Amino acid sequence: MDHECTVYKTVDYLAKKWTLMILLELYKGKEWKRFTEIKNSMKEITPKMLSERLAELEMEGLVENRIDASSFPVRSEYRLTGPGTELITVIHDLKKWALKNKIVNSTCANQDCKICIL
Amino acid sequence: MDHECTVYKTVDYLAKKWTLMILLELYKGKEWKRFTEIKNSMKEITPKMLSERLAELEMEGLVENRIDASSFPVRSEYRLTGPGTELITVIHDLKKWALKNKIVNSTCANQDCKICIL
DNA sequence: CGGTATCCTTTCGGATACTG
DNA sequence: CAGTATCCGAAAGGATACCG
């Protein structure tokens, strides 16, 4: 939309399809994850989408990428940056708000969600 | 997208165009605001969009509507509910995160933003 | 005033194929 | 393996007109 307000800018890219899922996928488990590894963990995503979203997140400084070109095939891995990890806290707050105020009966409420693992 | 995860569900509707702007518009100033009053404060929005978004937000329990049908023209007013107001806190946290981690030089950082007023 | 209805444009994302 | 290129369909949103 092209905003000047920080809040709108931030939500604009966080809100895109797959973005949150990718962030949470990178948040769980191991530090560095390979492209295909991320892709396989999100059954429905296309390489095009994953590629686009990772590029955006890298530009926003939430994700970093390291490439080992000496090996073949090239090994490319991603992880959350510091800011990226800190954002998870805010997302967790959002979840707490939702569970407190809106969700009446959800498996999400009884336990840590298996999907977002928050 | 049709998620089962609380977090995704929540972001799915918060992320729609105009939604955040409407919430913040209702957050500032007076308690109850009329349809046209909201519309005029957001120069670019069409009545269709405002109507759709308000309906969604009402369904989600973030906004409530009262109608005075005895007057003519009918007087219809909106305001944030309790949960709606609490959400503003989370949005504020998101802003703080963005200013701390991402925004280098923004008028937003020096003062409360004139747009989101957070 | 407070919306709906209709139509139309634009954007987004999916499917698929291909490449170094 | 880690993507990119191309094409296409669905859906979101804008413009405009109209109505109780």
The number of helices of chain A is 6
CATH superfamily of chain A: Winged helix-like DNA-binding domain superfamily/Winged helix DNA-binding domain
**CATH class wording of chain A:** Mainly Alpha
Strand order of the largest sheet of chain A: 1-3-2
Overall 3D form of chain A:
globular
Estimate percent helicity of chain A. 40-55%
Q: Report the uncertain regions of chain A.
A: none
| Count of discrete domains of chain A | 1
Q: Greatest contact pair?
A: A-B, 44 and 43 residues
Question: Multimeric state of these chains?
Answer: homodimer
Spatial extent as radius of gyration of chain A: 16 Å
Layout of helices and strands, plus pairs?
The structure is a homodimer of 118-residue chains.
Chain A: H1 6-14, H2 19-27, E1 33-34, H3 35-41, H4 47-59, E2 63-68, E3 75-80, H5 82-101, H6 107-110
Antiparallel strand pairs in A: 1-3, 2-3
Chain A binds a DNA duplex (20 and 20 nucleotides) through residues 16-18, 34-36, 39, 44, 46-52, 67, 72-76.
Report on this model:
2 copies of one chain form a homodimer. Chain A has 118 residues and is mainly alpha-helical. Chain A has one domain (6-115): Orthogonal Bundle (Arc Repressor Mutant, subunit A). Chain A is 53% helix and 12% strand. Chain A contains 6 helices and 3 strands. In chain A, a hairpin with a 6-residue loop joins strand 2 and strand 3. The model of chain A has no long low-confidence stretch (mean pLDDT 91). The first copy, chain A, binds a DNA duplex (20 and 20 nucleotides) through residues 16-18, 34-36, 39, 44, 46-52, 67, 72-76.
